[in-house]
Amino acid sequence: DLYRKVFVFRKDPSDAFVVLQAQLEQPLRNFTVCLRSYTDLTRPHSLFSYATKAQDNEILLFKPKPEEYRFYVGGKFVTFRVPEGRREWEHVCASWESASGIAEFWLNGKPWPRKGLQRGYTVGATAAILLGQEQDSFGGGFDLYNSFSGELTDVYLWDTGLSPDKMRAAFLSLRLPPALLAWNGLSYEVKGDVVVKPRLRE
Q1: For 109, how many CA atoms within 13 A lie in the half-sphere containing its CB?
Q2: Segment-wise mean pLDDT, segments of 10 residues, the chain, 202 residues
Q3: DSSP secondary structure of 38-94
Q4: E strand or H helix at 7, and its extent?
Q5: Residues 149, 9: contact at Cβ < 8 Å?
Q6: What is the pLDDT of residue 202?
């Protein structure tokens, strides 16, 4: 159980990553991914990378610079401009629904203006899901200068779009609906220099 724990990616740049195992029964037509990160990186870095054999950026949360997040679905992305962080924990949730092609982005419990992305698309179910690296091929093809360095926690993936109440609940670490990937019951494998440690502060 990773309750009140974090993954510490110790090196910069790094070849380390964490593989997440999710039980996906079928392709995704809706999803929400949430996580909390703490880093002093100013270079580009990957937070959550979900690749299929057909598409390496099937789902990707990527931060090219401190004041910008990119959210990819099926190789296409939308950009959300954010205030440059004050070197504190940042909680992000990104959700997408195929029927409307609406991409939602929440930062620290607040929604950003919604954007359009990949209407009618379906996200493949046979996936390599990694934290800490950006996949350029299925389960690999890493660029060290897109690697994450710092601390990650509270990683979740749902096969639905979360309601605004649940988005805020995720930010506040309150009770959440059952998920494909849930931090408190995460099935994972560490590859390289990543250490599980207690969270230093709430």
Answers
A1: 9
A2: 95 96 92 97 97 97 97 98 89 98 98 98 96 97 97 98 97 96 96 96 68
A3: E----S-EEEEEEE-SS-TTSEEEEEEETTEEEEEETTEEEEEE-PPP-SS-EEEEE
A4: strand 5-9
A5: yes
A6: 61
Supply φ then ψ for residue 172, to 5 degrees. Answer: -85, 0
pLDDT the model gives residue 201? 75
Q: Where are the alpha helices (DSSP H) in the chain?
A: 164-171
Confidence (pLDDT) at 84:
84
So where are the chain's domains?
5-198
CA angle (154, 125, 51) in 5-degree steps = 65
For 143, other C-beta atoms within 10 Å of its C-beta total 12
What DSSP character marks residue 165?
A: H
pLDDT at 23: 81
At which residue do the structure tokens 């100013």 appear?
42
Amino acid code (one letter) for 61: L
The domain made up of 5-198 has a fold known as Jelly Rolls (2.60.120)
